Amino acid sequence: MINTKNTTKNNPDKHCFFCVNQIDNINYKDVTTLQRFMSHYCRIVPGRRTGLCAKHQRKVSTAIKRGREMGLLPFVRK
């Protein structure tokens, strides 16, 4: 029988971008950094794909939501 489950052997270990670079505050005005954690369709990418820790994933998601409300980031792709 073929193993169809995803294994973590093939996936490299991902480390939190903010922990590695020792960035404490995540600002909603920093659009270029926040766009790294958004998909092509302007959706928030989950932490298991980006490698962010839970603490920084929460901060990134709230910063993206604030940036959307302020008009700095799009809600959907044009």
What is the radius of gyration? 15 Å
How many DSSP-defined strands?
Answer: 0
Order of helices and strands: HHHH
Biggest β-sheet strands, sense, barrel: none
Strand content: under 5%
Classified by CATH, the class of the domain at 25-48 and 58-78 is Few Secondary Structures
Gross morphology is: flat
Distance between the termini: 45 Å
Percent of residues in helical segments?
25-40%
Looking at the overall shape, the CATH architecture of the domain at 25-48 and 58-78 is: Irregular
Low-confidence stretches: none
Please name the fourth-level CATH homologous superfamily of the domain at 25-48 and 58-78: Ribosomal protein S18
Averaging pLDDT over every residue, what do you get? 89
Supply the number of helical segments.
4
- Given the helix and strand composition, which structural class is it? mainly alpha
In the CATH hierarchy, the third-tier topology of the domain at 25-48 and 58-78 is known as: 30s Ribosomal Protein S18
How would you describe what is shown here?
The chain is mainly alpha-helical and 78 residues long. It has a domain at 25-48 and 58-78: 30s Ribosomal Protein S18. Helix content is 38%, strand content 0%. The chain has helices at residues 17-20, 31-35, 47-50, 54-70. The protein is flat, with a radius of gyration of 15 Å. 12% of the residues are buried.
Topology:
Blueprint: H1 17-20, H2 31-35, H3 47-50, H4 54-70
List key phrases describing it.
78 residues; mainly alpha; 30s Ribosomal Protein S18; 4 helices
